């Protein structure tokens, strides 16, 4: 299997996480604990504080986050929020790089 990540060590990947509520916040913290470099974004800035305190960096918007990350996770409450984050102003589709993975 040929992959754009062939030859990468997992700890070299830049991980993005959008949506840091009840579910996303815990998953993000586990990714940070595993040693990954993580960039986070949430419309509620306070939701990002635990991740930032553990060493994550803040993406000001989904576009900025997606420009920096090889893998992007979203954990959002519903279709309206997914649409806003993906195709809204300064959304993921405005910044995602070729070969990046969006989960």
Automatic annotation (TrEMBL):
MF (Gene Ontology): NADP binding; oxidoreductase activity, acting on the CH-OH group of donors, NAD or NADP as acceptor
Keyword NAD in record: yes
Keywords: NAD, Oxidoreductase
Pfam entry (one): NAD_binding_2
InterPro entries, alphabetized: 6PGDH_NADP-bd, NAD(P)-bd_dom_sf
The keyword Phosphoprotein is assigned to this record: no
Boundaries of every 6-phosphogluconate dehydrogenase NADP-binding domain copy: 14-103
Protein name: 6-phosphogluconate dehydrogenase NADP-binding domain-containing protein
